[in-house]
Fold:
Amino acid sequence: MTAVAVNAADSDTPLRAVFKISLNGKTVSIGTVGQAYRFITNLSSIEWIEFRSLHAEAVSSLQSAAANAMLTVQATNALRALFVRARLL
Structure:
């Protein structure tokens, strides 16, 4: 059995909640690990600097959830903490 590298950005694993975020006048729905990973990594690191530890935890949790769907609860909780602190929810 060989280990398969999983790209978190391509993951279709559903999160335990769907986040609806208003950004630049548009509502963005985030419901999968891949969508969340792309959302929090495509923004500039400067935009997340104030929330550096929460951002790092969310990225790590999403990468883990992409490889093991049983970790989606932790990834969802990490995202919720980041979004609440950043006042996106």
User: Anything to note?
Assistant: The radius of gyration is 13 Å. The first strand starts at residue 14 and ends at 23.
